[in-house]
Model the fold of this input.
Amino acid sequence: MKVTINDVARHAGVSIKTVSRVMNNEPSVRKDTVDKVQAAMAALQYQPNAAARNLASSRSFSIGYIYDNPNAYYVIDMQRGLLDACRKHGYELIIHPTNAKSPDIVQEVLDLVQQSRLAGLVLTPPFSEMPHIAAALEQIGVPFVRIISGSTPSPKLSNCVLIDDFTAAFKITNHLLELGHSDIAFLCGDEEHSSSGERLAGYQAALAKRGIAANPKFIVPGSYSFESGVQGAKKLLELSKKPTAIFACNDEIAAGALFSARLMHIAIPQQLAIAGFENSPFSRQTWPPLTTAHQPNVTIAQQAAELLFRHTKPNASKNLSDKQPVFIPELVVRESTAVSS
Amino acid sequence: MKVTINDVARHAGVSIKTVSRVMNNEPSVRKDTVDKVQAAMAALQYQPNAAARNLASSRSFSIGYIYDNPNAYYVIDMQRGLLDACRKHGYELIIHPTNAKSPDIVQEVLDLVQQSRLAGLVLTPPFSEMPHIAAALEQIGVPFVRIISGSTPSPKLSNCVLIDDFTAAFKITNHLLELGHSDIAFLCGDEEHSSSGERLAGYQAALAKRGIAANPKFIVPGSYSFESGVQGAKKLLELSKKPTAIFACNDEIAAGALFSARLMHIAIPQQLAIAGFENSPFSRQTWPPLTTAHQPNVTIAQQAAELLFRHTKPNASKNLSDKQPVFIPELVVRESTAVSS
DNA sequence: TAATAAATGACTAGCGCTGTCATCATTATA
DNA sequence: TATAATGATGACAGCGCTAGTCATTTATTA
Done:
């Protein structure tokens, strides 16, 4: 029933210590010994006792994922990717939904780390953009990886996975421009999220490249929510000079804009083109379906976890750790920006 | 930095063992000793080492949640509720997304239980409705709680949290009837999910009570997906005798139906009323927003976990364990079924 | 073939907690 | 008041593994 390291050792004809060496991939174990031991582990279906390993080594085999994101699909995708990586490396994932705006969020994170004895942490927005959290984690020496918006790798961002929102937003705006639009409005997400700023910058850069002066009234502050899209679009569509296209900072905002346009009997895409960002499932389920930018969140999460494991694992090869992943979301064209027929 | 049970014992002036007794609320510790120990724990901010407890007691302090549900919001809510309960009882939650249709799903679940040494498991549909999983878990003696569709508590369902889909569906159908509809169609979810059957039964019962013969063409098989709603509604709206109202088995199907109706230039709710089920966030974000039934998923999950802990905890009072929670989703009326003006 | 380095094993001491059993303190019973 | 019966507490071993120290065996190189 219960297979211990002893059984494996006996089965493989080696000592307990050698099995332990293999498990912790310590150097100076011969290749064929490793094979022998691994064969024995497989044959006996050995499951190392995580509790014992934990206790003896006083390191832990779980990483944490803190989230506070209204977009459930994003969270689920992240979890999926993180779990994939965790399974591969024999780690466990501790999830922790919380309120990022809580005044003692830093303490909460530290408590989590202590209580669950986390080996490391993966941070997504908004946590990945809170400098005091990064600072606190650094101080207590807990490795962490941030998934953030950015396009240019740099040493300062060595523990980051970058999402190039700028370029993706540039591409979306360009798509609208190519469709013949020049009065393109932008519905911002939360100011605190740097993704919103990056996307705005991409939008502005695309306009600038065509020599189009950005109309300040066409840039509407807001937040990453349906409601914000409703309000923002309303404001835009009540202008005397309406935009002919709206680029929303994410799909939810875009859905809100769609809702507003419909209320005002504005036909999409004939009278108004709308584009979103994220490619969340409901971007396919609006009417008409939304043009958007696709982020491979599962893959991003996997990479983030892999990056983290390079820091948590003592004997892992760290030589490739300079590779800093950058993901560029891809343009997905759907009916919400179809050429008016 | 690291506070151990030793420190607490010394601080409280008792033996290590007594502290341990307090932690596990074993009987036969005097009241004032308990207080003394708890005061010491609080003063030192003692965090018991889960790994050590695990190892020494060979029981575990984590429960599992397996999911395979396309509805991310549902999963997130479940997690939230489960985590709330876990935190309260000092447990950890191990999440495990997987494919319910995998041929060796039972083995996978058993492996998970073994590998993560789970103290128990919470099952939601579709897993909660797979008898071979329940059987396998019973056989290896791992406690589990199922969240399933049903209205009448019974001893056989002692470890279940029931969702009364029947009554909720009855209420929705009744709402449509009261609006003056009599040609009400029903878009089914997956046959394997008993919720679909229960909701269908509730729909039929409501019709029957009014003496309305159900038109078999108005009952369309399908699955819990947007696409299924699109197809199902299309079929219905191409009938020579169209329904005037559609009750979809969940919001996603309803959104699909909405999409289809729009394609066919059918005005909602003027020409067709549509109702969903679940009250997922996007039921509020369609145009028009969907009438639906609200399930308090966070609370449901909490209760499920509490129920589970009564089985996993050795010294817990089990006397209240006969109480079997039943939740009736509530009717939420929105514009998709507004009286045609 | 000797000299050097690389693998491996035997042994030991915990990691922080729980379980068992022995001990001591208290109360009930005659 | 003595005696048993119970309640409350402590001493100690050990959960399954890691990690360190040396001793021993095996492979590699000059």
In short: Chain A has a mean pLDDT of 91. The longest helix of chain A spans residues 72-89. Residues 234 and 260 of chain A are 6 Å apart (CA to CA).
